[in-house]
Design goal:
The chain is an all-alpha fold and 276 residues long. It folds into two domains: 59 residues; 209 residues, MetI-like (MetI-like fold). It is built from ten helices and no strands. The model has no long low-confidence stretch (mean pLDDT 85).
Length: 276
């Protein structure tokens, strides 16, 4: 007959083995994903080369784009443009997210705030941020402010809805249980609402980051002198497809790296969630 200490030790061993199996499964999943990612990249390059080889719509090939990228790197143009675009995106994304999170929490937690704010949020959601560019030029001029404004608006509208949905989707059983245990509203909000809505907020941030990059090119229509969007517009005038492709690829890679950073942050902050 086993003692309590032996049963406890056996339980710890079983838990350790289960954790090891789960870690091994996650490692295998990551390796499979990496293989598929590399395969997808190879297939994409192959299709791109084939399309350029048959001269589909004058599409430049990977080699020509790589050569132009080398030229832009050598003269430093790509670094200046990328730095300008990243700065605009990061400022607009940061402001939009910092505004969206408290507004989303207010809308989800307080009925009066939802009644006052939701009509405006839903109204502006139906208007593409790009449509605000003429007004931004009229009221804010042609400097950096209107560019950052439209990017901020794009990030805000996505993130505020995600935060709001995160709050209203919190399991009411958790809220009621906290209140039964004597927690006041402030404690419930801090210990239940914020942790439970964090996954929604981070998904909203990732989507908002994508919206910010999507708005960037149009935002740089506003009398920009540098930036990846500006570089593409200049290249369009001279039908310089290679430069356009270099700028597009730079935007894609930069956006992907920033998204992966947010994904890493999501895993760190929501490690308690079960994952596939």
């Amino acid at each position: 007959m086993t003692t309590r200490a032996e049963r406890h030790a056996n339980g710890l061993q079983d838990a350790g083995r289960a954790q090891s199996r789960e870690e091994l499964r996650q490692q295998q999943t990551r390796r499979h994903l990496l293989r598929y990612n590399l395969l997808a990249a190879a297939l994409g390059l192959g299709l791109w080369w084939l399309a350029s080889y048959v001269k589909l719509a004058g599409l430049p090939g990977p080699q020509a784009v790589l050569e132009r990228a080398g030229q832009l790197i050598a003269n430093g143009t790509i670094f200046v443009d990328a730095a300008a675009s990243i700065r605009r995106v990061m400022i607009g994304f940061a402001i939009g997210t910092l505004l969206a999170i408290p507004v989303g929490f207010l809308m989800g937690w307080y009925t009066w705030a939802r009644g006052l704010m939701e009509p405006y949020v839903q109204f502006f959601r139906t208007i593409p941020p790009l449509a605000m560019i003429p007004l931004a030029i009229v009221f804010l001029g042609i400097g950096e402010v209107p560019k950052v404004f439209v990017i901020t608006l794009a990030a805000f509208l996505v993130s505020v809805i995600a935060t709001y949905q995160g709050v209203v989707n919190v399991d009411k059983v958790l809220i009621n249980a906290a209140r039964v245990l004597g927690a006041r509203d402030a404690a419930v909000f801090r210990r239940v609402i914020i942790p439970a809505s964090t996954p929604f907020i981070l998904v909203g941030m990732r989507t908002g980051l994508g919206a910010a990059w999507s708005t960037l090119v149009a935002a740089e229509l506003i009398a920009a002198q540098e930036g990846l969007g500006h570089r593409m517009q200049q290249a369009q005038v001279y039908y310089d497809l290679e430069t356009i492709f270099v700028a597009l690829i730079t935007i894609g890679i930069t956006g992907l790296l920033m998204d992966r950073l947010l994904l890493w942050l999501e895993k760190r902050l929501t490690g308690w969630q079960e994952r596939r």
